[in-house]
Amino acid sequence: MNAPVLKTGKGASPSWVRIPPCPPYEPTGGYCDIACHAAVSLWEVNGLTMTNAKTLEWGEPAPYFSAPAPVNPRFDFSSLAGRFVVLVFFGDSKIAGMSDALSEFATKVIPRDDSISVCFGVTSRASDREDTTVLSRFHRSRVFLDADWAIARKYGLVADNNEDGRAAFKPTWFVLDPTLRVYARGTIAEIDRLAALVQQLPHPSRHAGGVQEAWAPVLLVPRVLPPSLCKALIDYYNQHDAYESGFMRAEGDKTVGVNDTSFKRRQDVNIDSEELRTALRVSVSRRLLPELKRAFQYDATRVERYIVACYDSKTQGFFRAHRDNTTPGTAHRRFAVTINLNAEGFEGGELRFPEYGSRTYKAPTGGAVVFSCSLLHEALPVTSGVRYATLPFLYGTQDAETRLRSSSSVVDAERITTSKVT
Fold first, then answer.
1. Is this model's pTM higher than 0.85 or not?
2. Fewest CB atoms within 10 Å of the CB: 126, 170, 204, 216?
């Protein structure tokens, strides 16, 4: 059986195509025999009843994933938030008619500046990532490999024939907004509509409409640490040897601590003084936790990490956009806390939440910015002076059980200590 020709251009109708062979599946007839997991809707495809997970609709959140990309063997899709993202699920360049469709896409969909939008192709044919013709269709050769069609399934683009169990795939594009929710979608036959849409996209900071820039769901709490404690923590930092601060990355089923100065430049000192730790716990418990409870209806009972962190303008100290709970060893974290110790002593160094526009946030000396660990955030470069801060994570009693279960998967971790905060 040959895959049906994919019709493109004006007036073409959407097509489902049989999935070509891909290892390790080699069924008779030359098509992947892969099971669909969530059957919630039915389609008629070539006269056969098909079962499939629900295709993403307008306004729904796009599933996160990690996948091989040209510059990173485990690219974190969620890191793209903060701009519009175009995902073109073409599945396999060898699908009949797909070469013409990709050529039309490359000709008509003019790339915007990366700060406005980025576009990635998604293929399940490994050789497409080595094919210069295929890669040339996407700006900077941005193509994800979805070797087992798992990403396409998450997006509701793979259906199974109820009669013989063989899979079909619907080539589709999605435009996602800066919070990675569906802004628009269409079939690969609707290239003209995609091209027009990309050129009309607003600035990401205005994607919600209106004239007011979006604000992030963060809490700013002044007067958490008294000035004397702020000074004592800075003195403690300067009296001890600092180490290069790393970050946690998932590698297989392990959570591994890594250092990369192109991603993060910060020096830390671990607080070993029980007197200072107690003072921090008391301040957080009495002045911050009641505000956390009032704003977010959450009971934090644990604090993780006692450090004084230093972002120095001499190295343009920064921490690029990231999330704080994306690995098995950090999944227990619920809220991140940034407490500035010398807000008047530096410029730059503000927090920014790319999913919610370009607005920046800076706590006063002794004040805290509190936010969910699920939010994409970055510490902007310090342009003058030195920024000192203490940066605990908060979590609850049930989360502590999650942390205990995952502790064996953590390798080369940061110098993390935890304790009860209440």
1. no
2. 126
